[in-house]
Automatic annotation (TrEMBL):
GO terms for molecular function: DNA-binding transcription factor activity; transcription cis-regulatory region binding. It comes from Lactobacillus ultunensis DSM 16047. Gene3D superfamilies: 3.40.50.2300, lambda repressor-like DNA-binding domains. Residues 2-56 form the HTH lacI-type domain. This is Transcriptional regulator, LacI family. The lineage of its organism: Bacteria, Bacillati, Bacillota, Bacilli, Lactobacillales. The keyword Transcription regulation applies. Signal peptide: none annotated.
Amino acid sequence: MTTLSDVAKEANVSKMTVSRVINHPEQVTPELRAMVEKAMESLNYHPNSIAQALVNNRTNVVKFVTLEDIDTTEPYYMNLLFGFARGLNTKQYAMQLVTDPTKIEKGHADGYLITGARNKDYDLFDKLDKPFVLFGENHRGYDFVDTDNQSAEKMATQYALDRLYKHIIFIGIDIKEPFEYSREAGYINTLQQHQLIPQIYRVPNHSHKAQEVIREHFKEFKKDTCFICASDRIAVGVVRQLQAERARIPADFGVIGFDGVFLDQVSNPKLTTIKQPIFEMGEMLAKMLLQKIAQSGSPQGEIMLKPKLIRRESTR
């Protein structure tokens, strides 16, 4: 059985250095940490997670806190959960799911990943006594990971223009939150660069609400229009109502969604969409949170991951 001494000998360092790499990685240089981790991997050495937790006065448990309803018919949050769990596994951490915000601090945990946060929730965060990170951009200085929402809609809008649609309409989510502002800004900035006038509708994030907008205004929409939608749910509603109006997709009307998880593929026609790297964001959130815990709550900043535009049948 491989011991701490074996790792120290393999890496040509002291046992104390190996112990610091395992228990207090923030106290050693990246080069030294890499040497020790390479030796551990070479010898197939795995630290005892229970012993580590005792040494560091930790539980090796973090909480995944969602402040909005999780729709189990959509795998969006499941992808995030699995990515987060995979990231935790690298440090032998366990996860507890919390859906009631009043119970965030009930029981023991070393930190929190918080999803679905809205402006009204920020006062709650200031009262937390454990490290936490957010899934979703914010303007309050809290550490977070998110898609680069602004560049995503810039990409979608430019793509619609490149496909020779003459009229570009944005259908956003009717919510006053940073991610939505960023998406709208990406659309507006791109149109202004082409000296085109933005046209925005906002609806709750439900397909039937998007259908209502298309039904009420269809006669106003000219051919060669592409709808840039703030979610795949909205895009699905747009497609359904365009079909009900016997509009030709994608010849006369294009539709671009946002998310790229499940709904884009079950839509008929399949949606051109902005695909968020959900699984990767889950992994990055775990890495950020665990590093923040290891560094006793030190700020970690923000990470914006680049999305991809997936071309399918709802655009030319």
